[in-house]
Each structure stands twice: as C-alpha cells, then as structure tokens.
Design goal:
With 641 residues, the protein is an alpha+beta fold. It folds into 3 domains: 146 residues, Thiol:disulfide interchange protein DsbD, N-terminal domain (Immunoglobulin-like, Sandwich); 172 residues, no CATH class; 140 residues, Glutaredoxin (3-Layer(aba) Sandwich), CATH 3.40.30. Helices cover 46% and strands 17% of the residues. The chain is built from 20 helices and 14 strands. The strands form 3 sheets. Strands 1, 2, 3, 4, 5, 6, 7 and 8 form an 8-stranded antiparallel beta sheet that branches. Strands 9-11-10-14 form a 4-stranded mixed beta sheet, with helices on both faces. A hairpin with a 5-residue loop joins strand 5 and strand 6. Helix 4 packs across helix 5, helix 5 runs antiparallel to helix 12 and helix 8 packs antiparallel against helix 13.
Length: 641
C-alpha cells in the first residue's frame, strides 16, 4: 500500500512539474529494410533535464521497459527492445528501494519488426515509456507514423517544393479566380430560391397558403398583429431550413470531406434509389409521408397563440410538405454539398426564403389571395411532371457512382438514351396519350399542357444526337449533366474532332517527363468525374477552336481526377501522410492522391482548378477556377508566358 501511495503522489508531482514548464518526451523514429518481411526500427530521444527513463527491470513487478504497440496485427515485434545510452543503476524509493536501471541524456532504442503483407507501406505504432524524477513517476506515450523507405518517393511526389502559390512568376489570373469564388454562393442561393418556388406549386404546399394566411387574419386582433404573425411564420420557415445546414459548420470538417461525400458511390446509389421511389410516388402509385406521430406532435403545439405556437406551425408545414419538398431539397443538397458548408447554407436559405416569403406577403396584403389560382387538377399535373424530372435526375446520381468507380454501366450514349425515353414519356403524358394514376380517359387537356408536351418532344429530339457518334453529339446546353465525351460506347473515337486529342494524360509524373522532353509547360487540370462545371469547361471552352489549338500547341495537359475511387498500386499508397495543416490522412485511391496534390500545392479544394507549371516546376501565374468565357480563359493561358 505504501508503494502504491508513493506512486500516486509521484504521478501528481510529475504532472505538476511538467505543467510548470518541463518538456515531454519526443521520439524521432525511422525504419530500415532488412529483407522483404523484416524492418529494423530505431528511435532517438533526449530526456528533459532532471528526468530519467526506466529501462529493463524484470525484478520490479509492473515496471515495463520501453514498449511498442502496433496499430495493425500484420506488424509484430521480433525479439526484445535494445536500449543504448547513458545507463546507470539507482536505488528507487518508489519501488521498495529496489535497484532500477535508468537512462539519462540521449537514448536510442532499436526493435526488429516483421511485416506479414507486402501491401503495408507504412508503420503506425505507439511508443510507451516510463520516466522518473526526484521521487516522481510519469508514464509517457507517443504515436509514430513511418513511411517505409521504398515508399517515400510516393509521399514526396505529392508536394512540389518549387511551387509557391503566393509568388507565381506572373500575378495574372487572380482576379478571375476571385470572381469565380465570390459569385458561387449567390448562384447556389438562386438555385435554392428556384427550387423553393417550384415546391410552392406542389399539392403539399400551395393549398396551405390561403388556409394559413386566413388563420392568421382571423386569430389576430388587428391587421398589425396579422402582419407580425405572418412575417414570423415566414421567418421561422427560413430558420428551419437554414438550421438544417448548421451541423456542417459546427463539425468543422475538412473541406475535402464534402467532395468525398458528394462523390461517394454509396451515397449516390442511395440517392438514385430514393429518387426512383419519390418519382414512383409522384406518379401517384403511393404516398410518402413522415410518421403521423411526428406531424401530430408538432401540430398540437401549433395551436398556441404565442411565438412558440407560430414556430410549431412552421415545423408542421415543413413536416407535412416533405413528400413534395423532399426530392427538390435532396437535389439541392447533393448539388451544393461539394462546395462546403457555406454553399449548403446558401442553398437552404434560398429554399427557405422561397417557401416562407409568400406567407409573409399574403399576411401583409391579404387581398392578394384573390389573385391566386384555385387549387385543382393542375397541381397533380405539376407533381407528375416533377416525377419525370426526378426520374431523369435519379440517373444523374447513378452516373456519378458509375463514373468514379469505372463500372461502365451508364456510358454517355446510354445516359442520353434514358433521358430520351423520359422526355418522350413526359411529352406523351402532357398530351394525354399516357395515363397515370388518377388520370381518366377523355380527360380535358388544356392548351398550356399541350404546348408543354410539344416542348418535351422538342427536347427529346434535341438530345437524340447524344446517342450517336457525330459532331452533333456534344450537346452544349446539357454540358455537365451527362458523362464526358471520353466515357463513350464508341471508345476514344468519340472524342476525335470534338475535344483535345494530343498531349493529354492523367499522371502528373508522366506529364513532368514529357514536359522536360518537349520544353512545353504543364497545364494542370484538377477535375472530377462528378464535377458539372468541369464538363462545361471541357465541352464548351476547350472545344473553342482558338483555345483548343493553343492548348495542343503550347501545353502538356494533365487532368487529375480528385474523386477517382480506383485503388493505387501498393507502392504509391501512403499511410499517415501529414498535410501542410498538420492533419494525418491515408492516400489509398487515385482521388486521394490528386485531391491532396491540389490542396498541398495550390491551397484549393474546389474543381475545376487550372494551373500552369513551367519546365522548372515553377508556377507561371495564378491558378483559376471555372471560367466559362473562352476568350478570358485564352487570355489567362497566354498571360505570364
């Protein structure tokens, strides 16, 4: 008991001493290959002044030597730890005055380890050691990550030391990049606003406008109070939708995480299934609603006349309208999440404003209610039109998963074929030729509906060339939605005459070698298989004759896909890579490598991103993002040369 008490007191003394300024133990480790399955680990440290390290003391129960604990069971220590340094023996009062072996000053340990799998290219382990000082006792642990010597080239190839993004050879290009980023949030807000306005005219939301406004008008003592209640109602709707994006801010996620989420094959397959189910529901085959218990609880609270009651009325609307707003909101969320938390908030704010604003306006001007069209069959038509849209969007999500995994299921022409059938089906429904649930034979088709049906057929004719191998297959109005031209059932022949054919590759190391041979600088294209704006640049800007000619004559073009899920060869994988921000990450897939490459060298994580690197590895000018104006993009490529 005395010994235990002494150890406890010693630990508190040690913690106090370290808190007052003493340094903790810091190991610097390395590994040398002995043979195909054995490595020799070594680690060196210098003990803080006054402190000593306990070595091997088998006669003292519970006092361990320096010890290694490996994260993987495929790595195991072979033999005992060997310690080298200034060793001595003391009579230790903490351990019943037994003799203990200690080390002071600089200490080196060595440990042989066996590796069971050749695919392991880094070692992750924890060094445990026990320190003492004037009756104090302090256990120490430090986590170590070592990239094995033959794999260090893979880690070193991520960061180009000659690149200084703060000091390019020419400063041109910076303005274009700032304009791109500053307008991004507003564009997402407008998309959210558009989605919200569409949701207003669905059967779940539209009938609620006159009912809710009439409730406020009748329950309020005067017009001023009705205006206040209606405005609060609209504000709470906005607040609820914006609040849904707050967790992404509070979690403080690495921006790269948002790209991984939006391009995740599993998530995209899940959204494909969800959108198919929503489309079937919108067609009228069944209804999707949240559990009645949730809506009932919120509705019971909405009977209150206080601000809290108005808030719960807004919650109730959000819940009961889910079957109509859910698919639209889901499309917005998946489209915005790649831009990070702020783009999510901007999109949700736009959606909330569009839904909440009419309630506030009609509460202020109740006479405007007379201008609203009466609820009727036209709302069911809107819902079924949205069903066709949801069906088309579902295949966009399937396409994202197919592209990043290279399954080859939904090539560009197959994608257009599906959209052609959806467009023809939409046209047939609007013309009354295709009947869906709740439709009946002899139903009157309005002139507006017939016009929309004709437009659907025109759209189907527009996308029909997309299934062919002709110059007309590049449909500029839809750039970004279908797979790229190169992802074709016709193979590489589909790109000839439509895109870039020369000096194009997907490996930066190969591009560097070709750059040295030809004397041409490298045009780096940080892109993604699921990146809409990347496809727009490739199909609308790069195909511009002047831009295309300039790239082919003056650059080695390397396209690096940051969302490619293909697994890297084992000698290119890096575990425990330390980023410039001090974060640890594993680089296992092709996308991991190029996403890290972009972040480390250009301090960006958005796509597309374009940068020019000369034959000396220097950054020629400021990198730029999405630049839809071919003339401005050409000017950027020429500046600094």
């Amino acid at each position: 008991m005395n010994r235990i008490a002494a150890i406890i007191v010693g630990i508190f003394i040690a913690i106090s001493a370290f808190a007052q300024g003493d340094s903790t133990l810091v190991w610097k480790a390395d590994a040398v290959k002995v043979n195909d399955s054995v490595y020799q680990l070594s680690a060196r440290t210098t003990l803080p002044a006054g402190w000593y390290l306990y070595g091997s003391n088998p006669t003292i129960e519970g006092l361990e030597n320096v010890k290694l604990t490996f994260a993987s069971t495929d790595v195991q220590p072979t033999g005992d730890v060997t310690l080298q340094g200034n060793a001595s023996k003391i009579i230790d009062a903490l351990f019943d005055h037994k003799e203990a072996t200690i080390y002071k000053g600089e200490v080196l340990f060595k440990q042989a380890v066996s590796v069971a799998k050749k695919s392991i290219n880094s070692l992750h382990f924890t060094i445990s050691a026990n320190l003492g000082k004037e009756g104090a006792f302090l256990p120490q642990e430090q986590k170590i990550d070592i990239i094995l010597s033959e794999y260090k080239a893979a880690a070193n190839s991520i960061k180009i030391n000659s690149i200084d993004v703060q000091k390019p050879l020419s400063d041109c290009g910076d303005v274009a990049d700032r304009v791109h980023h500053s307008t991004g949030l507003f564009k997402v807000f407008l998309l959210g606003l558009l989605g919200g306005f569409i949701a207003l005219f669905t059967p779940c939301v539209f009938p609620m406008i006159p009912v809710t406004v009439s409730f406020f008008t009748k329950k309020s003592h005067n017009h001023k109070e009705a205006v206040r209640n209606g405005s609060l109602y609209g504000f709470f709707i906005l607040l609820i939708y914006v609040a849904a994006s707050l967790p992404f801010h509070l979690l403080d996620l690495n921006p790269e995480v948002f790209n991984n989420i939006s391009t995740s094959p599993g998530l995209n397959i899940l959204f494909f299934i969800i959108f198919i189910i929503f489309a079937i529901s919108f067609f009228g085959f069944f209804e999707i609603t949240l559990p009645h218990s949730i809506a009932g609880k919120a509705d019971s609270k909405s009977g209150l006349t206080s601000i809290g009651g108005i808030f719960f009325m807004a919650v109730t609307l959000t819940i009961v309208s889910f079957s109509c707003t859910g698919p639209l909101l889901g499309t917005l969320l998946v489209g915005a999440i790649n831009g990070g938390a702020w783009q999510l908030s901007a999109g949700m704010a736009g959606f909330g404003v569009a839904l909440g604003l009419p309630f506030a306006l009609f509460a202020i001007f109740p006479s405007w209610l007379q201008l609203l069209p009466k609820s009727g069959a036209w709302m069911d038509t809107i819902k079924k039109v949205l069903a066709f849209v949801e069906l088309a969007l579902a295949f966009k999500f399937l396409s994202n998963a197919d592209l990043v995994e290279h399954w080859g299921l939904l090539k560009r022409e197959v994608f257009f074929g599906v959209w052609f059938l959806v467009a023809v089906g939409l046209g047939a429904y609007l013309m009354g030729w295709l009947r869906l649930p709740h439709d009946y034979k002899g139903q009157k088709i309005s002139g507006t509906r017939k016009v929309l049906g004709i437009l659907a057929f025109v759209f189907s004719l527009y996308i029909l060339p997309g299934v062919t191998n002709t110059p007309y297959a590049n449909l500029s109005l839809l750039s970004g939605f279908p797979p790229p031209l190169s992802y074709s059932i016709y193979g590489k022949h589909n790109v000839e005459g439509k895109g870039l054919e020369a000096n194009v590759m997907n490996d930066f190391d190969a591009a560097t070698k070709l750059s040295a041979q030809t004397g041409k600088p490298i045009l780096v294209d940080c892109t993604g298989w699921a990146c809409v704006n990347c496809r727009k640049m490739e199909e609308n800007v790069w195909t511009d004759p002047a831009v295309k000619q300039y790239i082919q004559e003056h650059f080695i073009l390397v396209s690096l896909y940051v969302d490619d899920k293909k697994i890297l060869p084992s000698d290119e994988q890096v575990y425990g890579y330390t980023t410039m921000d001090g974060l640890k990450k594993d680089i296992v897939s092709v996308g991991d490598k190029w996403a890290t490459f972009e972040a480390e060298n250009f301090h960006q994580n958005t796509q597309p991103l374009y940068a020019i690197i000369n034959t000396k590895g220097q950054l020629v000018n400021q990198p730029v993002g999405y630049t839809p104006d071919a003339k401005k993009y050409l000017e950027w490529m020429k500046c600094g040369r």
